Amino acid sequence: MKGRNLIWIARVVAIAALALMAGCDMVGVHHVTPKEYAAQRRSDVLSTRKLSDGTLQTLNVVALNRDDCAANFTRCTNTLLLSDGLDDERRLSALAELWLSNAIQRDSANNGPQVSDPALDAYLQSARYAYAYLFYTPRNPGERAFETRQSQVLDFYNYATQQAVGSFFKLLPELGTDWNSRAIAGWNLLKPSTDVYLGSGDYIPKELIPAEGLRFSGLRNVYRRDGFGSEFVAIGSPPPETDQPWREPNYVPLTAVLEFPGDTLSSVLSTHDVRLFAKNPYLDSSITLDNQIIPLAANFTAPYGVWLARSGFATQSIRSLFGRGGITKPEVLLMQPYDPNRLTVIMLHGLASSPEAWINVVNEVMGDEQLRRTYQVWEVYYPTNQPVAANRLEISKALEETIHHFDPTGHAVASRHIVLIGHSMGGVIARLLVSSSDDKLWSVVPQRKDLTPEEKQKVRQLLAPYLQFEPMPQVTRAVFLAAPHRGTPVAQWKLARWIGNLIRLPVTLLEQSKNLTDAMQGKTTSGDTPTRLPNSIDNLSNEDPFIKASSTLPISSNVPYHTIVGVYKLKGPLNDSDDGVVPYASAHLDGADSELAVPAWHNVQDTPQAIMELRRILRLHASTLHCLRSDGTHEIASSIAICPDSSTGQ
């Protein structure tokens, strides 16, 4: 019995040995975690500096591995290029990643500020193979829309393009302007095509920053559009010192695309020509390549964030308040290159503030794709130490001059149906910009009874620009946020009075005050102090004569208006509440189309609730104008939203 068992065991061992010799493999199976599954699918040379699973599998098909490619890169890529065992998609996607890996390694080994020619060549090779995969294989990009591999290849292209364009940009100074093509790193760079405008007639950036690696504190969200191309912040020269009130943007988004000319796959793979397209994503949502309309990538937040980070507004606004530097007259800052076919939103900040007050407002509003297609934003930056009447006058002049400069005929969409948005003191000024004064403000002027008719006329001529005005005809909707239309008791607090006493008014305003004193009181002797002009803090007091009189002025019947108020620690009726600075009774306006009370401190404009309300109001404004266009009354941009259904009452 024992002998039989031994014979049986020997036979089993022999059969197993024969099976192994025949190459009969055993297949095992095991489960991976979701994290491991995601890592396997998404890991590539950009995310982990290791080749993706798709490229490693492609190498296995042609009997290669990672070590073979590291040892002899030329042999590896030639084998992939010439092998009959691969379809074009697998071949080209693997080559795009291998060349990108090679470029990154060469770039890392180079300590110089400029990308070396071998590294630049490798980046362009990677971009070309990715470009060929996307547009010159049997399936078009839309047929692979849900495939992870296409997303990876698109990332390879965009990153390689980013690195190559950065290198090209550094060479621009030595290339000059009189050229059509130049040899660079073994490639023939064709003259770039661009529609990116940086203001002041400038189309060539002075600085180019990749947007991909930028992160911002103070901004809640980064708004971008996925698509083809590499995202940059293009920075132009600082605006020249001029008397003109407008400032065109010199921080703008740029999307770069590299095209490799050719009609067939073989011609694309053999070309060493490359053309750069620099596109303005506000104007261009797509680009046509190989007779296909391809959506363009874009980063709309990055230019705004870099501009704010470099602006120095925080320091300037305080210096300006105390009259010790900063700006001395209003400036109209365009947030995007002027577009005659987009509606205009104008924003006015408050006391001791600056365009930084609108950090998240502008970013969130322009992050909304529908609003971005419909609107452009202008921000008014003004010295907040001056009296409200003086700022109203100067801001009105600056806006009129800016509008006339960009649209001399006044027929552009951008010049009509403007939305005016003001916060705090900016809301008070915004209200005056859409109000009629008639003769209601003359009561604030002390009049001596013994003035002659000629002297009275002189006083009236001097004060008329400040006290007599009509609504801006271009504005047809307004929003007031935490605006002290009837003043605030806070302006009378001891601290506020102390700060107010530190404020210096501009010399020109003091000279005008001196002229007014002379007219009202007779010529003063040398060394006499002119009658003290109220400053901005004086004007914000609920006891100030000007603020009392101006609060009664009628708003234009052509301007629907909305209020957004802050309510800080509400404990009783809304009428008795405030935002910590402005009482509800001062911010409230009868006749408003809507009013929203937000549980917030005075900086209510920065809250998500207020921003959502502003978005709603802007959509309503655009929708209303589109309704008007249907009867031929107005010609408004085609991008404006469809009318609400009137049958619903919305």
Summarize the structure.
The protein has 650 residues and is an alpha/beta fold. It contains 22 helices and 18 strands.
Derived from helix and strand composition plus strand pairing, the structural class reads alpha/beta
Measured as a percent range, the helix fraction is 40-55%
- The total number of structural domains is 3
Architecture of the largest domain, according to CATH? 3-Layer(aba) Sandwich
Total strand segments: 18
The shape is elongated
Kindly identify the CATH topology of the largest domain. Answer: Rossmann fold
Strand order of the largest sheet: 6-12-14-13-15-16-17-18
Note the gap between the termini: 96 Å
> How many separate helices?
22
The low-confidence parts are: 523-530, 629-650
Q: State Rg.
A: 33 Å
* Level-1 CATH class name of the largest domain: Alpha Beta
Strand content: 5-15%
Mean pLDDT: 84
